[in-house]
Amino acid sequence: MSVYQFKAEKINGNEVSLSEYEGKVLLIVNTASKCGFTSQLEGLQGLYNTYQQQGLEILGFPCNQFNSQDPGSNEEIEEFCQLNYGVTFPMFSKVDVKGKSAHPLFTYLTDEAKGLLTKQIKWNFTKFLVDKNGEVMDRFAPQTKPEELEKAIQEALKQ
Asked: Do 74 and 11 contact (CB within 8 A), yes or no?
């Protein structure tokens, strides 16, 4: 099994198969526009600017499950991310990342890379690094800054 078996709706409403990203290193992140970690969007965009040409794709999935920190519409979220952080990496429609209504992709990700005390995502900006074969390599906590992932991304790109 791999992330390539899943489909997701882009923020513009078009459904895509994650198989479109086959052969790329993926960093999948549950984002939020009104979170203490929202400024990480800038660091994520920096990683994208640096490593996209080498095969990195960052996939942002807005989520409103943690203190309602992403209450806006998909259009509002997209505009916020672009205007405030210059986000050009792919953003997807708002999803749930935990519980019975969790998007199947996040159920898979959390099964493959359990957290410290629980497999459930505990907050916004949990990050999953996926290798070029679509297999989950690692999971990073919300407080892990994007810049701290650079070495892991470089290693994944070499494989």
From this structure: yes
Read off the pLDDT band of 115 (50, 70, 90): low
Number of domains forming the structure of the chain: 1
Helix (H) or strand (E) run with residue 25 in it = strand 25-31
Amino acid identity, residue 61? F
Could you tell me the two tokens for 18?
């994650």
CA R_g for the chain? 14
Active-site entry in 18, 26, 35, 149: 35
* Annotation says 35 is catalytic: yes
Length of the chain measured in residues: 159
Domain that holds residue 49: 3-158
Q: What is the pTM of this model?
A: 0.95
The enclosing domain of 35 has a CATH number of: 3.40.30.10
CB-based contact 70:102 (threshold 8 Å): no
How far is the C-alpha of 73 from the C-alpha of 155, rounded, in Å? 36
